[in-house]
């Protein structure tokens, strides 16, 4: 102990401990105040975006980005207050970031695709979409993945890189949709009567919009039927229910008025050998 005391001056150790203690206290104070300021800035930004009616998905994404960026800056400031050289720290952080980037290139691809999805917003939470071979309602658009709930209540998690690189069909993007049906009647049925019956079913349904007006027109003279194109417009939310009800209503109306919906059929004639020889 005496040898150690001879090598280290107690006054020097006391001064060094006091200096480090002061830096540590200052660093803690900077961290506490800085963290409070980060939370305040994020809350202020979130409130501003809500007042501006910014999309909820975009607002949450920007909140996370700003929070992470400010926290990184705060940690660098704390390190500088303690006395850690931030230049070396940044160099080490950059090298580590490069290594992590090479190891997690797929995750970074999903992240960049998530940024593009949030910025360009081809769909939003609550939209019914068809993407990457999955049809369903968008439940969440995350930084790395998108959650879609299917019609049978399954949740399908799709990486954002697959979502952004695939064709996206958004069925909820517009307020109205057109129902496209092809219905056939027999060649012996009256065309004008069939058209009038079908149009009557459309006009009787309150969900069918008046503008654009529904259309029933002759589409094709098929192999076994005279085909009509039936094209009413409805609100997007009424599409599937109206389509199902319309098919049932048109079928019942045609049957009630003596018109048939033909189906492909073949007549087979069997000729016996005796008849063939005579």
Which features would summarize this protein structure in a list?
about 280 residues; alpha+beta; Helix Hairpins; SH3 type barrels; Alpha-Beta Plaits; 3-stranded antiparallel sheet; 9 helices
Q: Quickly count the helices.
A: 9
Overall SS class: alpha+beta
Shape: elongated
Whole-number radius of gyration?
A: 35 Å
Kindly provide the name of the CATH class of the largest domain. Answer: Mainly Alpha
- Give helix and strand order, one letter per element, not per position: HHHHHEEEEHEEEHEEEHH
Count of individual beta strands: 10
Q: Between the first and last Cα atoms, what is the distance in angstroms?
A: 133 Å
Number of domains: 3
Strand ordering within the main sheet: 4-3-2-1-5
Largest sheet: 5 strands, antiparallel
Mean pLDDT: 81
What is the helix content?
A: 40-55%
CATH architecture of the largest domain: Orthogonal Bundle
If you consult CATH, what is the topology of the largest domain? Helix Hairpins
The parts where pLDDT drops under 50 for at least 5 residues are none
